[in-house]
Amino acid sequence: MVTATMMLWTEKYRPKNLDEVVDQREVVERVKEFVKRRNVPHMLFAGPPGTGKTSVALALAHELYGEYWRRNVLELNASDERGIQTVRERVKDYARTMPIGDVPFKIIILDEADNMTSDAQQALRRTMELYTRTCRFILIANYSSKIIEPIQSRCAVFRFQPLSNEDIAGRIKMIAENEGVNIDESGLKAILYVAEGDLRRAINTLQAAAALGVVNDKSVYRVVGRANPLEIKEMMELALNGEFIKAREKLRDLMVHYGLSGVDIVRQMHREVFSLTLPEHSKVKLIDKIGEINFRMIEGSDEEIQLSALLAYFALYGEELRDTG
Fold first, then answer.
1. pTM value?
2. Among 218, 236, 224, which residue's Cα sits nearest to residue 260?
3. Could you tell me if residue 14 is inside a domain?
4. d(Cα 94, Cα 152) in Å, to the nearest integer?
5. Radius of gyration over alpha carbons of the chain, in Å?
6. What range defines the domain where residue 206 resides?
């Protein structure tokens, strides 16, 4: 059973070695070669959230240092101050010290390095040059373009891809079995829908939904604050079929029941348009209108008025399709 004191499953099931890493086979094989030769370069791990960047970095440290890994690894993340002063003091002091064990260098992991200030990155590039003999850096970023070119040129770049549904499903089933969680097929599909290639989000969603009992589509959408995609699709189909009032009532029910904002609704509508049985040119027009409404709401327009206007457009366009069909 899930309790309030139980640790996060994302940490409990974090890979302890590179063979346990989900997918990212090309990246893992390249990293294994570095570990095998005990000659790790500075590295930049770039890619979307929840795709295994930090897990690969820590698994590398486990395999490289064994029982001494904690003594030879400094990990800084977004919760730490990482301005120029931190680079000049804490990072520099750690980089100049000798490692423990038979590996001739320590490792500094800078998670979310794309949030570092430009000045800090400029200071970091010099530190990376001066202390290469005693320290190697692993920079982790969602957007590699935010890392300055001089640092990128000093690193071996590894690009992580969103995980496939098959790989995420396999990991979720394994965790559910180990934790005694009852998950049905609808719950698994819902987790894959909300995860969008992010394994961390998938595991956190599983743990949150498990606290409600059986993990099914209802419990999953309830804990993540999203509407069931079938209900979003139903609302759009009502509007396209000319039932504007029913579509608007459905919209209000969704916003009240799930506590969604207008932007949340529009984002899900954007995703579900592609599943409608409409010709491609019709989907193009609807997507264009959804983009316009999204922009208006972000700029501060009234959400209910804009969503009603969007459904009205769907209704008018559906009438136009019927007249020309």
1. 0.83
2. 224
3. no
4. 22
5. 24
6. 165-224
